[in-house]
Design goal:
The complex is a heterodimer of chains A (97) and B (374).
Chain A lengths: L10 E6 L2 E6 L4 H7 L6 E2 L6 E2 L12 E4 L2 E5 L10 E3 L1 E2 L7
Parallel strand pairs in A: 1-7, 3-8
Antiparallel strand pairs in A: 1-2, 3-4, 5-6, 5-7
Chain B lengths: L5 E6 L3 H12 L4 E4 L15 E2 L10 H24 L10 E5 L2 H15 L10 E4 H7 L9 E5 L3 E2 L2 H14 L3 E3 L6 E5 L2 E5 L4 E9 L5 H4 L12 E10 L11 E3 L4 E4 L14 H14 L8 E9 L8 E4 L6 E5 L7 H14 L4 H4 L9 H4 L1
Helix pairs in contact in B: 1-5, 1-8, 2-5, 2-8
The chains are: A mainly beta (97), B alpha+beta (374).
């Protein structure tokens, strides 16, 4: 759905749920997820509704994902880094993970 | 008796006030609830939501029986509210724990329970002391530092914000007049009716029930009653929603129906509701992680402090005025636990016009006077 206006920056490789995704340096994790065409970054803990990044400025908390093992991070506030492991969050997180 | 607008004016729109108002409306009374505005210091929005039995009653044995009575009535109370409003307050009674992080803590706990149970006439609430292995069978995620704890099968919890909303919905449906921003400044009794002064207007009622929490201290003397209070502050730490892992509430830690974990382990004598002592939150969180190491990686999403409604000795005060007949106090710390009693037992007494001393005599504020204690 989204396409880049220009291929700025250099290529950065990360994984989303174990699958390789190509991002560009300067992307936030949220931008990288949207550019990669994922259809949900999480589902809500109570009703299970699907969510994608929305406000892209740290306000709405819709883009929560697990980054390098740390849960519920705001994807729109974290710049991508080479080798980063991103996991989508489905429903409630499991305590201890 | 004068033809007042209302049979009963309930002062206070928190959990105690609305539970009492709902019970009064069920008895057919015309009820008005006089409340403060949105900026009220409101324990009903900050509480921990336990419906708790174990440890209640050390120092006043009848309090144990009174608490058990409410605990037993709670399921029916929740069901009736659901039928009337369609709202589920998520009452659960799986039994609850008090956990100890050292042998010394466990020994102190066991001694407390022994002293409690040794009081004459105490109701038995079946609390048992368990060691680490016994606790681990019921709470598999406890950490190695948990040496044991006490378990009471009568303990439970609810969604207390939803309880607050549900009771307000229920009183509205029953035609109770709710007046926010009507802080009561003065109460007099003239011509057989009570006149309650607010900034907006004067309200008249045949009876008055004081359910204003810590503010009862100032209101009670206006109608010949007393209500000595010593408010204290508690702090709560709330995590993100987690998959259910805690099957039983712990007195300092519980997982809500929607998955958040609430941690509340503190008492401070200070009473500034706007402040938060960071060291207190840190200690609460640290003890919680020692009890359940899986919480170490959970994100905290909120913390708050709230003022506990606390009578001078911690036990409820239910009284009727001798000098101002028709004036009652309904005051306690445990507004959630005792909500069923206030709705189903206290309210009908007020509707009849007199407290049933066989049930509530031990809770009169006269206990604070040694001359009258005999």
């Amino acid at each position: 759905m989204f396409k880049r206006l220009a291929e700025a920056g250099t290529a950065v490789a990360l994984t989303v749920d174990g699958k390789p995704v190509q991002a560009r340096s300067g992307d936030t994790v949220a931008a990288a997820l949207l550019a990669a065409g994922i259809d949900r970054c999480r589902t809500t803990p109570v009703t299970g509704a699907p969510r994608l990044p929305y406000c892209l400025m740290g306000v709405c908390f819709d883009c929560l994902v697990t980054i390098d093992g740390v849960g519920s991070r705001q994807a729109c506030m974290v710049p991508v880094q080479e080798g980063m492991k991103v996991e989508t969050q489905i429903g409630k997180r499991e305590a201890g993970r | 008796m004068a033809a007042s607008e209302y049979d009963v004016a309930v002062v206070g729109g928190g959990l105690v006030g609305v539970a009492t108002a709902w019970g009064l409306a069920r008895e057919g009374c015309r009820v008005v609830v006089l409340d403060e505005g949105d900026r009220a210091v409101r324990a009903s929005r900050g509480n921990f939501a336990l419906v708790w039995v174990q440890s209640k009653g050390l120092g006043l044995a009848p309090y144990a029986g009174w608490t058990i009575r409410s605990s037993e009535a709670w399921a029916g109370f929740a069901e009736t509210l659901k039928q009337e409003t369609g709202l589920d307050v998520c009452f659960q009674r799986p039994g609850g724990f008090h956990l100890s992080l050292s042998e010394r803590e466990l020994e102190a706990r066991a001694n407390n329970l022994k002293r409690l149970h040794n009081q004459p006439g105490i109701a038995d609430y079946k609390t048992e002391i368990m060691d680490h292995a016994q606790v681990a069978k019921m709470l598999p995620d406890i950490g190695p530092e948990v040496v044991g704890g006490s378990f009471c099968p009568l303990d439970g919890h609810v969604n207390s914000l939803r309880l607050f909303r549900t009771l307000h919905t229920a009183i509205k449906a029953r035609g109770v007049t709710y007046l926010p921003s009507h802080r009561v400044e003065n109460i007099t009794r003239e011509g057989g009716e009570f006149r309650l002064t607010t900034a907006h207007r004067e309200i008249r009622a045949n009876r008055v029930a004081l359910a204003a929490g810590n503010a009862n201290m100032h209101l009670a003397p206006m109608v010949g009653l007393e209500c000595p209070m010593r408010p204290e502050r508690g702090q709560i730490v709330v995590t993100e929603r987690l998959r259910p892992f805690l099957r039983h509430p712990v007195v300092t830690l519980r997982q809500t129906d929607e998955g958040t974990v609430m941690i509340g382990d503190s008492k401070e004598e200070r009473t500034d509701p706007a402040g938060l002592t960071l060291g207190v939150s840190a200690t609460e969180a640290e003890r919680a992680v020692r009890m359940f190491p899986v919480l170490g990686s959970a994100n905290v999403v909120r913390t708050w402090s709230a003022i506990r409604v606390m009578t001078q000795d911690g036990f409820p005060i239910y009284d009727e005025s001798e000098s101002h007949p028709g004036a009652f106090t309904v005051c306690c710390h445990s507004g959630v636990t005792l909500a069923a009693n206030h709705a189903l037992t206290i309210a009908p007494m007020i509707a009849r016009g007199t407290l049933d001393t066989s049930l509530v005599a031990p809770f009169s504020a006269r206990r604070f006077h040694v001359q009258e204690a005999g």
